[in-house]
Amino acid sequence: MSNKTVNAGGAGRLPLNIIKILDVLLMTGTFAFIWYRYYTGKIMVPYYRRGHWLVIFLFFVLFVLCGRTYDAFVISYYKISEMIESQILAAVVTDFCMYILVWLLSLYVPDIKPFLLMFATQIAIAVLWSVSSHKAYFRLYPPVKTFIVWDMREGMDDLINEYGLSQKFSVLGDCHVNDCVDNLSVLDGYEAVFISGVHSKDRNTIIKYCVANGIAAFIIPRIGDIMMSGAKRMHLFHLPILKLSKYDPSPYYLMLKRFFDIVISLLMLIVLSPLLLVTAICVKCTDGGPIFYKQERLTKDGRVFKIIKFRSMIVNAESDGIARLSTGENDERVTRIGRFIRKTRIDELPQLINILKGDMALVGPRPERPEIAAQYEEDLPEFRLRLQAKCGLTGYAQVYGKYNSTPYDKLQMDLMYIANPSIREDISIIFATLKILFMKESTEGISEGSTVATNLPSDTKKDE
Fold first, then answer.
1. Where would I find the H helices in 303-406?
2. Residue 101 CB neighbours (<10 A)
3. Any alpha helices (H) in 200-332, and if so which ranges?
4. What is the pLDDT of residues 121-146, one digit of tens each?
5. Banded model confidence at residue 323, pLDDT cuts 50, 70, 90
6. DSSP per residue over 396-410, as a string?
7. Three-state SS for 176?
8. 152 or 136: which carries more pLDDT confidence?
9. Is the Cβ–Cβ distance between 339 and 329 less than 8 Å?
10. Rounded to whole angstroms, how far apart are CA atoms 359 and 393?
11. Where does residue 239 fall: left (phi above 0), alpha (psi -120 to 50 degrees), or beta otherwise?
12. What's the start-to-end Cα distance of the chain, in Å?
């Protein structure tokens, strides 16, 4: 294989790892300078040398964790602008945590100006590192010779171009799955294969051939594949067994999740109370209508509850009785203040009250309206599988998808979360939610006039 990043071992990834380590060291170096220059003499109990190293090491660890959460070290799959955004967001969260630590260690409230100077330096580092590492990467690693195998989900090459990945994957050929299975040698000479919307029988045949011949396989999964990812491995009858059952997390996970829901939502309501008050006044002053908007939504096991949001549309926006999804910035029903609070997600904050009441969780599948869910289920009966878990303020589909992602894609992402519940995953999604606040596509609407996002991929109309 000529491309070192597809199937290479540690030696092939060494230059890439050095580039990433350099970034972390530069960011940590800025904190070390600020720490020694401005803060070491102001803490209540001065540290010896090893104590200072420990504080600097803490910054190092936090930045690595935040960087991994926000994909700040992903070079080959992101555009330069996306890399810069991720780097800056990781720095913001890390700097905030370290400022709180310095505050706790100091006799008085520490001067924030050195931290602002540090952050300005980090922005410069983020820009220079992102640009230089992106260019260096594609000098070191040429585009991967790529082939696409598709069944009922075409357009993979268009997605590769749309997301700026043509530098990573050079698509040189494609074919329908039937043509590939009949002649697997069509894959020879390629370094990567995308398998899109292919049923398990044919897909497994292709995968085995790829593994045997050192070809990297990128698979767009189907619903059954995602459900299988949560299967429990067992050994019965001297055979490997995979046990798959309905969403059934441990009581300890559910208790800890509920504890975090109560504590975090209560703290957020207290901290954000000035913002909530100002928003309420602005909404009321817009047209004199009600401040809040309540709407029926579905949660675990199909239970209906009233979700609470700041009203962002005109009064009686659905006076004709037809349930419609928003068309985004082009939706004439959205008020001027409504556009702002939707873009910044402020309209969602009253749902913290729903979380305290137990209707929702901080993390889970987003609650859907009964009418719209029923329309989705006409073409996609599996959509109801999202109701295995309590709905959430944020979720896997919100972090890794878009507002106008198809119901099928949203279902897949929600099932990925449901298949592997953990507090660690919840915390990761909560922190990753900060990133989507700055992404325009996360608030895009659907086609104007649509009652639901009806652009289901054609493979949803057939059995898995």
1. 336-343, 351-357, 370-379, 396-400
2. 15
3. 200-212, 223-228, 251-271, 273-287
4. 999 999 999 999 998 888 888 888 99
5. low
6. HHHHHS-TT--HHHH
7. strand
8. 136
9. yes
10. 10
11. beta
12. 34
- Tell me how far CA of residue 332 lies from CA of 309, 340, 369, in angstroms: 19, 14, 21
Closest CA to 436 of 398, 462, 404, 409: 398
Question: pTM, whole model, 2 decimals?
Answer: 0.73
Structure tokens at 78: 């992101």
CA angle 215, 219, 225 (to 5 degrees): 130
The single-letter DSSP state of residue 411 is H
Q: How far apart are CA 10 and CA 133, in angstroms?
A: 19
If one compares 192 and 323, the residue with the highest pLDDT of the two is 192
Residues contacting residue 92 through CB under 8 Å, at least 6 positions apart = 119
Per-residue pLDDT reduced to its tens digit, 51-69: 788 889 999 999 999 998 8
Q: Residue 299, Cβ neighbours under 10 Å: how many?
A: 23
The DSSP letter of residue 143 is P
